[in-house]
């Protein structure tokens, strides 16, 4: 669906690009001509992804181990990348999350998730944003949020808090930096099977079945679908979209929000007869 050179000459950093959705975006961006940097904490995971994706575009993907919570390390990574030329696009995708009853969480658990998701996004955004603004170089930032950033969600409270902050950052900087050439959007994905997310959030088949049953499309999203949307949002084709949070969840959150959605699904044909006007029965 995209021109094969859509991202030619674009230099892109994806945090958490060694696995899951980050890796899927890396693959799609490479196929469309971009030069890629991926970062994460585990060097061996990054190296394996580089080895796997390199044949698509030899020499156009590099990895840098970096914990996005560590500001001096982030600034070092960004300086290293900039030595080869400025980045054009950043995808803040790195995250941590797990299910827990909130009263059982330690302060360290809140700190870990808020540190990666919110502070990590801020660290990378500030390091790149300051360089773009001072050099008057255009930049695009795509943040990976979650549908519960707006609604909140029980049992993933640190993640919900952090993603809400990421969405506020997205909308705020889209306005503050927009007239200086930096565009910022977010994707709020629904459930998409990845080893990282599903092993921690839906670790048993019956939980997956439950999640499928509440999705209007009756299926999970795919990493390829996410990569397509991300490609559009980082490309010049979406140049007038700024400060937007695009939901990609098969309609899941709307189904949860609609007062009668769940009740209606439980009704039989006979039950529906009761709702018809007397004359139509
Ligand atoms: P994933 O494979 O676990 O991806 C998370 C990535 O972040 C990993 O590569 C991880 O690598 C990296 N990471 C974690 N902590 C880091 C740190 N401190 N510094 C640098 N990198 C770090 O899970 P995913 O499903 O692809 O998730 C990708 C994004 O989509 C996340 O933002 C997630 O919240 C969002 N999302 C996913 C779903 C879904 O259903 N899959 C739904 C809604 C939102 P290391 O461990 O090596 O650091």
Question: Briefly, what is this?
Answer:
The chain is an alpha/beta fold.
Description:
Helix 2 (43-53) links the parallel strand 2 and strand 3 (61-65). 37% of the residues are buried. This protein has a seven-stranded parallel sheet, with helices on both faces. The protein contains twelve helices and seven strands. It is 49% helix and 14% strand. The chain has helices spanning 20-31, 43-53, 71-83, 107-135, 148-151, 157-178, 195-201, 205-213, 223-234, 252-257, 261-266, 269-275; strands spanning 11-15, 35-40, 61-65, 89-92, 139-144, 182-189, 245-248. The longest helix has 29 residues, at 107-135. The model has no long low-confidence stretch (mean pLDDT 96). It has one domain (11-280): NAD(P)-binding Rossmann-like Domain (Rossmann fold), CATH 3.40.50. With 281 residues, the chain is an alpha/beta fold. It binds NADP nicotinamide-adenine-dinucleotide phosphate. NADP nicotinamide-adenine-dinucleotide phosphate binds next to helix 1, strand 2, helix 4 and helix 7.
Main features:
281 residues, binds NADP nicotinamide-adenine-dinucleotide phosphate, alpha/beta, Rossmann fold, 7-stranded parallel beta sheet
Number of domain units? 1
Treating each run of at least 4 consecutive H or I residues as one helix, how many helices?
12
| Termini separation | 48 Å
Number of strands: 7
Kindly report the spatial arrangement of strands forming the biggest sheet.
3-2-1-4-5-6-7
Largest sheet: 7 strands, parallel
Give the DSSP E fraction (strand runs of 2 or more residues). Answer: 5-15%
Strand-pairing-aware structural class? alpha/beta
What overall geometry do the principal axes of the alpha carbons give? globular
If you compute it from the alpha carbons, what radius of gyration comes out, rounded to the nearest whole angstrom? 20 Å
Ligands in the model, by name, code or SMILES, are: NADP nicotinamide-adenine-dinucleotide phosphate
User: What is the mean pLDDT?
Assistant: 96
In CATH, the homologous superfamily goes by the name NAD(P)-binding Rossmann-like Domain
């Amino acid at each position: 669906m995209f021109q094969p050179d859509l991202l030619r000459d674009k230099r892109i950093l994806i945090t958490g690009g060694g696995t899951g959705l980050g890796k899927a975006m890396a693959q799609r961006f490479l196929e469309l001509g971009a030069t890629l940097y991926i970062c994460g904490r585990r060097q061996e995971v990054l190296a394996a992804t580089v080895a796997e994706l390199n044949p698509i575009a030899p020499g156009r993907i590099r990895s840098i181990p970096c914990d996005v919570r560590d500001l001096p390390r982030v600034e070092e990574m960004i300086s290293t990348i900039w030595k080869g030329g400025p980045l054009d696009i950043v995808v803040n995708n790195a995250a941590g999350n797990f299910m827990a009853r909130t009263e059982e969480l330690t302060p360290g658990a809140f700190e870990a998730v808020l540190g990666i998701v919110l502070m990590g996004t801020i660290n990378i955004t500030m390091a790149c944003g300051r360089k773009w603004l001072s050099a008057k170089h255009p930049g695009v930032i795509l943040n990976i949020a979650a549908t519960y950033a707006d609604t909140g969600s029980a049992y993933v409270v640190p993640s919900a808090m952090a993603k809400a902050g990421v969405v506020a950052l997205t909308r705020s900087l889209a306005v503050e930096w927009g007239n200086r050439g930096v565009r910022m959007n977010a994707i709020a994905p629904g459930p998409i099977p990845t080893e990282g997310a599903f092993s921690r959030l839906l670790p048993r088949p019956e939980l997956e079945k439950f999640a499928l049953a509440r999705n209007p499309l009756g299926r999970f999203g795919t990493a390829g679908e996410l990569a397509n949307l991300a490609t559009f949002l980082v490309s010049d084709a979406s140049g007038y979209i700024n400060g937007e949070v695009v939901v990609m969840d098969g309609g899941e959150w709307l189904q949860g929000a609609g007062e009668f959605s769940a009740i209606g699904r439980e009704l039989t044909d006979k039950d529906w007869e009761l709702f018809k006007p007397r004359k139509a029965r």
